[in-house]
Design a protein that fits this description.
By secondary structure, the chain is α/β, with parallel strands linked by helices. Helix content is about 35%, strand content about 15%. It has a single domain (about 15-264), classed as Aldolase class I (TIM Barrel, Alpha-Beta Barrel).
Length: about 260
């Protein structure tokens, strides 16, 4: 298998617009769940960049549970993300939900995100595999490690070799957190695959009070980065407000993560 350690014994290291990911290089991805407007995205982006984030995230096409919830700004959102990323010299990552969006999204993004709900959208994976834009693929909420790695094969086998995995929590009986963070996936995948794997403690816990500890644990487990949602006014966020860190909390967490990386 193309993702396996047997196929490629060394850790893969990818470069997204000058930012290395893998082999000890951490992707610190941060930004709001959804792109809501240029002023807000810029404000959050400056703060997370100053705190040490190296990739800016924001959704323009949002996979909402309810069709009546905010669905994202679409192309207007992509334009905003591109502008803000360029102004701050940050690469950007955004979700693509449908093969018909690939051409449009590829004009604006440096990395595609495949969301948890689309991890087994095989037609989407095949089409993404035909591009040469790096991909962040999130684990489906009831996908096994094997399922995730087979989904990755759909992308790799089409020729796109730059795939980064993301653990974002799985559904279990536990309901005091949004999902259950399966941190053992990090060393588990490291044994099986050469690909980088990052952790998203925001969607995994849904709780700002738990995100810092889980981000620390993720980095200690040997992952290749963390993905965190940040909003300057979580009460007013149009998507995933309750799990957003405010910029000050994110900056404090990044200080702690740097101290941890130093002692490691
Ligand atoms: C997101 O990153 O905002 C998102 C929708 O994540 P997931 O696909 O992991 O639910
Ligand atoms: Mn979100």
């Amino acid at each position: 298998k193309l993702a396996s350690r047997e196929f490629h014994p060394e850790d893969s290291v990818f470069e997204v617009k000058g930012i290395k990911i893998g082999g000890g290089h951490l992707a610190m991805i941060a930004g709001p769940c959804a792109i809501e407007g240029e002023a807000l995205l810029y404000e959050v982006a400056v703060r997370v960049r100053d705190a040490g984030a190296n990739i800016l995230r924001g959704g323009a096409f949002k996979p909402r549970t309810s069709p009546y919830s905010f669905q994202g700004l679409g192309e207007d959102g992509l334009k905003i993300l591109r502008n803000v990323g360029d102004q701050l010299h940050m690469p950007v990552v955004t979700e693509v939900m449908d093969p018909r969006q690939i051409e449009l999204v590829s004009r604006y993004t440096d990395m595609f995100q495949i969301g948890a709900r689309n991890m087994q959208n095989f037609d989407l994976l095949k089409e993404i595999g035909k591009t040469r834009i790096p991909v962040l693929i999130k684990r489906g909420m009831s996908a096994t490690v094997k399922d995730l790695l087979m989904s990755v094969e759909y992308i790799l086998s089409q020729g796109n070799r730059e795939v980064i995995l993301c653990e974002r929590g799985i559904r279990t009986f536990e309901d005091s957190t949004r999902n259950t963070l399966d941190l053992s996936i990090v060393p588990n995948v490291k044994g099986l695959s050469h690909l980088p794997i990052i952790v998203d403690p925001s969607h995994a816990t849904g709780r700002p009070d738990l995100i810092p500890a889980m981000a620390m644990a993720a980095v200690a487990s040997g992952c290749d980065g963390v993905h965190i949602e940040v909003h300057s006014c979580p009460e007013k966020a149009l998507s995933d407000g309750p799990q957003a860190l405010v910029p000050d909390q994110y900056a404090r967490l990044m200080d702690e993560l740097r101290r941890l990386a130093e002692v490691m």
